[in-house]
Design a protein that fits this description.
The chain is α/β, with parallel strands linked by helices. The chain has one domain (3-428). The protein has 10 helices and 21 strands. It has helices at residues 3-17, 22-38, 54-57, 73-76, 113-118, 123-129, 138-145, 380-388, 393-409, 415-428; strands at residues 87-92, 95-96, 109-112, 151-155, 165-171, 178-180, 183-188, 193-202, 208-218, 223-231, 236-246, 251-260, 263-272, 278-287, 292-301, 307-316, 321-330, 338-347, 353-356, 359-362, 368-376. Strands 3, 4, 6, 7, 9, 11, 13, 15, 17, 19 and 20 form an 11-stranded mixed β-sheet that branches. The protein has a 10-stranded mixed β-sheet with strand order 2-1-5-8-10-12-14-16-18-21, covered by helices on one side. Strand 1 and strand 2 (95-96) form a beta hairpin. Helix 8 (380-388) crosses helix 9. The longest helix is centred in the first third of the chain and has 17 residues, at 22-38. The chain is globular, with a radius of gyration of 21 Å. The chain starts with a helix and ends in a 9-residue tail after the last helix.
Length: 437
């Protein structure tokens, strides 16, 4: 049975066993009908021209993993940012793990979507925000149709969250092949600040497909600092759909670090709905083998006097493939917009591939918009210079690549995250370098 047919046949049974909240039921039903009509994306769609899901859709995925597998903290501690105290929302095979988590309802809500769906006190938040900014495309609709669990984060007005929040989804391989669809909602009200770290991690060599959707709402003067760490097993694939709506004077920063996995697709969408907004999108990708990473970004400038800054760096070895499609739309009313987009890539191997497509659609006349893309190799003269001063060729290459990525790393605001990413980069480059960036 094809995966689409399996999902369609599973939906009726799914609806019969989950909460029958009429509002959520209606949202799910419409999303299911949309997915039924659209199916999975193919390369015939312009947005998926360079990324095919055919190879991973052939697996016989378990849609609702039931086998419970015990996971000890010692086995997974290395995947946490454990150098600092954080709130934690941890899921194992799509199910909440109270043992590994640290949630709270003291002044803020760091808890579960299942609780938000089923408890009346969260109804105003769900009614006002759930599924309000997410697109109705193929995979987002599929996630919405089966949405039951994920992280629910609500930060009321005038609160600076005292410690970061980690959202981690583990897959144990309890099934021969597993499909997960986590759904998260982050609402940050006026004048509030929060830092969030997200990770999807497979603990198995069995095939895993994660179709994740996150909606983030930043109200007036809110600050959201978000980090995505993607360093998964070669049999794990991820489609990460993130939708962000910002109000006046808010700042939202998203850093995406893609270092591993089979196929990784990041759909990152910003919608500016007020003046004096700043949207920051940065990323580092380092892949090898036959790994595939696809970054699709959208910043929609709707109102005047706003800014957006995109800076993506990629290092590609062996037969790896990358895609960068960065789109900026500036509406007629969005005068005084300042939009910057830069995508720089290094091909370490002659067999590596990058498909880059920067896009600007500008309908206003008083704006500053720029985009740039470079694709090249390491500077042989610089490498020769370093070798003449006693630095081995392997370490010299690593130093050049560290320097290449540093414009993204220097904007990381959590020192422990910066340290962890530096270590991951050194590991990917197979060197040990005795300094921190």
């Amino acid at each position: 049975m094809e995966l689409k047919d399996k999902l369609l046949s599973s939906y009726v049974a799914f609806e019969n066993r989950v909460d029958t909240n009429s509002d959520i039921h209606e949202i799910r039903s419409k999303a299911f009908q949309n997915f039924e009509e659209l199916g999975f994306p193919t390369k015939k769609l312009e947005a998926w021209k360079y990324t095919s899901l055919n190879s991973i859709l052939k697996e016989d995925y378990s849609i609702f993993p039931n086998k419970g597998v015990a996971v000890e903290l010692a086995d997974v501690k290395k995947y946490f940012i454990h150098d600092i105290d954080t709130y934690k929302v941890v899921f194992i095979d799509g199910k909440y793990s109270p043992f590994l988590s640290e949630t709270t309802h003291e002044h803020i809500d760091v808890c579960l979507m299942s609780a938000a769906f089923n408890k009346g006190k969260y109804k105003p938040i769900i009614d006002n925000y759930f599924n309000k900014v997410a697109k109705q495309d193929n995979l987002t609709s599929l996630n919405t149709a089966f949405a039951t669990e994920g992280a629910f984060i609500h930060i009321p007005k005038n609160i600076e969250v005292e410690k970061p929040i980690q959202i981690i989804n583990f897959t144990t391989g309890s099934e021969a092949a597993t499909m997960l669809q986590p759904r998260s909602l982050v609402v940050v009200e006026e004048n509030s600040h929060v830092q969030i770290i997200e990770r999807h991690q497979s603990l198995t060599s069995n095939p895993v497909l994660t179709n994740a959707v996150t909606e983030i709402f930043a109200e007036k003067r809110a600050f959201v600092d978000y980090y995505k760490i993607q360093n998964d097993d070669n049999n794990a694939s991820l489609v990460d759909n993130t939708y962000i709506e910002q109000q006046s004077n808010s700042v939202v920063s998203v850093h995406t670090f893609s270092f591993g996995g089979n196929i990784t697709r990041n759909n990152l969408n910003f919608y500016q709905k007020g003046e004096y907004i700043d949207s920051i999108l940065k990323g580092i990708t380092i892949i090898e083998g036959k790994q595939h990473v696809d970054h699709h970004t959208l910043v929609h400038h709707i109102t005047p006097n706003c800014e957006s800054h995109q800076d993506y760096k990629g290092i590609y070895d062996e037969r790896s493939t990358a895609v960068f499609n960065g789109k900026v739309i500036v509406e007629k009313e969005a005068q005084k917009t300042n939009a910057y987009q830069q995508n720089n890539n290094v091909l370490v191997s002659d067999k590596a591939t990058i498909n880059a497509k920067p896009q600007l659609e500008i309908f206003a006349d008083d704006v500053k918009c720029s985009h740039g893309c470079t694709i090249g190799q390491l500077d042989d003269d610089a490498l020769f210079y370093m070798q003449q001063r006693g630095i081995p060729k392997k370490e010299g290459k690593a130093l050049l690549m560290f320097a290449f990525a540093n414009t993204v790393l220097e904007s990381v605001k959590i020192p422990e995250v910066k340290q962890r990413i530096t270590e991951l980069i050194a590991d990917k480059l197979k060197v040990k370098i005795g300094f921190d960036l």
